[in-house]
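Hi P.,

Sorry for the delay on this. The queue was packed all week, but I finally got your sequence through. Input first:
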Amino acid sequence: MGPLEGIKVVELATWILAPAAAAILAEMGAEVVKIEEPVGGDPSRGLRIGPTGVAPLFLVENRNKKSVAINLTTEKGREIAHGLLASSDVFITNMPEEVLTNLGMDYETLSGVNPRLIYASATAYGPRGPEAGKRSFDAAAFWTRGGFMHYLGEPDSDPAAQQAGGFGDHTGCVHTALGVISALYYREHTGVGQRVDVSLLGTGVWTAAVPVQLALLFGISLPRGGRKAAINPLYSNYRSKDGKWFQLALLQSERYWPDLCRAMDREDLMDDPRYNAPDKRTENVADFVSLLDEIFATRTMDEWAERFEHYGLLWDRSRDYLEIANDPQVLANDYIVEIDDPALGPTKLVAFPVQLEKSKGGIRTGPPEHGQHTEELLLEMGYSWDDIARLKDQKVIP
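Then the structure:
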């Protein structure tokens, strides 16, 4: 049993941010029902790749869920959704406010249907302000608006290449799930439901909290420094003889400086007046980084790995996503798990990395087919087969 066993969640959402938050709750044991449009459903179903027609994005964000296809533009469709929500604990959405209002799925309406309901809204730019209703994806509202494009990359170069898909969404979905769980805890003590708001913009500001805080305190914006302008060049990236990149993470540079010199077979640098103190390394950073580039180009990545480990240095090698998918450390900790999907067979999925010892939760099923559970849930709600047939005739359900 997962820690959220018995919690019922209704999701009206597409793409990543809100569906991923619901997937976290499902992995923690909640029952999640995803409401989809009768035709097509979540558009991420259509992003199919390869000869088997797998939709990776939908696969990741929608495991452990049930799918019901309902036409919410009809009165009967809204009646079904409200009936479902009357006995549910949580509603999660990333739909625009005006759409939700038109569908009768706005906070005011649903809190009237169920005053104990936790209503979680995930948006691009937040619920207030001049851009409250503006639509976006995380590449714009998180990556670009959050300052990452501005800061990352070498000086006088183009901005860092586009983020991989879903970085902001997969950060914001954790915030959303945390907000929901906090609201559930509050309801446990008060009996009162409430609204939870999370945005990609807010997620970006929080993720960049350290440089934003510097701006608040000192009125400065950190410049794009690059490797040869680093304040601490022992907290930077370098390349080995075989062309592989790695990151030194020696934040306490004075503590690790002697052992780094030993690892490089350059004990002579320990007392070099140009580099023997943090402020000296900062003052002479361009020359120092050039020197380290020359030194690290003399050995392969595996040779440096052995020496770094021997001297207890903090570091790691850059890995591509195929390497990550087969990383023994990732697999040993069940950050990737395998399920038996009815459509795909044995399938590996990225797992939510929070693990509880006593109430484990986990991935129980793959993502549902479009509308797979519509009839099942209607029967559970008390609808008869005759009722279901009429709903089909009225185009309320497919």
